[in-house]
Amino acid sequence: xxxxxxxxxxxxxxxxxxxxxxxxxxxxxxxxxxxxxxxxxxxxxxxxxxxxxxxxxxxxxxxxxxxxxxxxxxxxxxxxxxxxxxxxxxxxxxxxxxxxxxxxxxxxxxxxxxxxxxxxxxxxxxxxxxxxxxxxxxxxxxxxxxxxxxxxxxxxxxxxxxxxxxxxxxxxxxxxxxxxxxxxxxxxxxxxxxxxxxxxxxxxxxxxxxxxxxxxxxxxxxxxxxxxxxxxxxxxxxxxxxxxxxxxxxxxxxxxxxxxxxxxxxxxxxxxxxxxxxxxxxxxxxxxxxxxxxxxxxxxxxxxxxxxxxxxxxxxxxxxxxxxxxxxxxxxxxxxxxxxxxxxxxxxxxxxxxxxxxxxxxxxxxxxxxxxxxxxxxxxxxxxxxxxxxxxxxxxxxxxxxxxxxxxx
Amino acid sequence: xxxxxxxxxxxxxxxxxxxxxxxxxxxxxxxxxxxxxxxxxxxxxxxxxxxxxxxxxxxxxxxxxxxxxxxxxxxxxxxxxxxxxxxxxxxxxxxxxxxxxxxxxxxxxxxxxxxxxxxxxxxxxxxxxxxxxxxxxxxxxxxxxxxxxxxxxxxxxxxxxxxxxxxxxxxxxxxxxxxxxxxxxxxxxxxxxxxxxxxxxxxxxxxxxxxxxxxxxxxxxxxxxxxxxxxxxxxxxxxxxxxxxxxxxxxxxxxxx
Lengths: 409, 257
Hints:
The structure holds two protein chains of two kinds. Chain A is an alpha/beta fold. Helices cover 22% and strands 24% of the residues of chain A. Chain A contains ten helices and 24 strands. The longest helix of chain A is centred in the C-terminal third of the chain and has 12 residues, at 335-346. Chain A starts with 11 loop residues before the first strand and ends in a 6-residue tail after the last strand. By secondary structure, chain B is α/β, with parallel strands linked by helices. In chain B, strand 2 (35-39), helix 2 (46-57) and strand 3 (66-70) form a beta-alpha-beta unit. In chain B, helix 1 (9-27) crosses helix 2 (46-57). Classes of the chains: A alpha/beta, B alpha/beta.
């Protein structure tokens, strides 16, 4: 019995026989979708006297909000830091392929690059909704070049820059345009970083601290000026020290402005962080943990050599190093692998693991009113998963955009 | 009157649900010939609703050609408030079954003209051909729906102020804050329920025992409004052992035998 069409003509789909992640719990509820949004069935029943047009039996699957990856450098042979002729088709390929990992929105990430790369690549990235063509693009994540030499990690030293001359103007000149930029990672100990952080924050760009030798008070000052994220916690920063916890100390700092939360990215691929360290971070500040893949071009491909911007990277199993060194450079982990590994390593609940890849990144970017949850009126970007957290199907705007073969529904 | 005594809450709920289920099936509802059901809220009928949902999910019972009329609703509470009777019915019953939303009638406690809303409700019942089976509960003070002690036994659907006992009892659902508890409700009248062709009252638990005693062993009295059903030609009281604690042994033996 369809609705009386008083609000909308669009068909109403009811996903039954499932457990949905809502209010931080897996609840035995049906999921209702109409016109690309999660629908309130009680309102439909009483206000519109409506009911479902289509009912789909999910055979006991878990339904979770789609994953959001805010740090991904490429994959499947595509490198977002390389200004190639077919850059656009490269980004399309990655956005389409990561649907099978459960990612429904992402921030293509560029590592430290010469200005020419930013000037050529950034205009080719557009913020767009996801769909059958691939995951939605929320905006670019620019990791560098305003980072510390001592903590450059896999970033090329010759491209590092400072903004001590012209502060924000230097940054703007380097990147060319900030129109589709969502996150900028920088080292807060750099001169005039406060001005830059304030200016970026004013423009709605999320400032992340990373590749830095900042001490805790420098980090706290950066947060006071507007920084809200930490790029891959533990990696490329000073190690935790009990008399100066450095950036890691932000997890339990008492100098965070009221009403704000500091989020931190974690690559839970089993390589970048020892499980014990992952647990320490999670237990210290569970609500701030954001799972990221930091995946590079070699993700999804056979082991071997690939590029990461200006560098060459060697992949051996799950380990990815700058060729000829032991310097970690990104990962080949997929988001769903990270979610599973995170859940195993911390022993946390399924709900917590799923929220670290959906709700928390949405909260970081200030978009949780429409992404990262299954709340009524949110965008209907969601996943069907089995109990072991393997993705069985991916939906964007209520439409199935990927399905594991041999799933009968 | 029939008094059906089951051993415990679960069995009483199941008996009541089976009775409703059988009534509907025997009626053979079809397009143009709906079975009309009056429905209660509260703790007591939860087990019965669960069973009805089970029968529906097993494929044994459909509500496609059933019309329902709820007994009451708070005044001034937003419809989507978790304690509204709309929320109760949606979460505990409607969302699990195949009833047509156009056939699920609940009084609107936020209507601009409350008396007109009540009159319209009576009209809808009339247009549906009257109620085949009205299921109700009993309050500790012997009220049916919100027909608090002192309500006329020939009353119709109307606005009622809630008794202090009721407000206090409800406070636990509103964070213990008395100021948040609704003080008025729209309710079907005793007369409205008496018009039904058949009435089934569910009473379980020792705290309802005194009310049951007053309802069936004493006279018809507007202080114990459920007592009105002594004058209804087809009433069943379904209860558990605990609810019979205040009855005479003779009464219990008679109905158990």
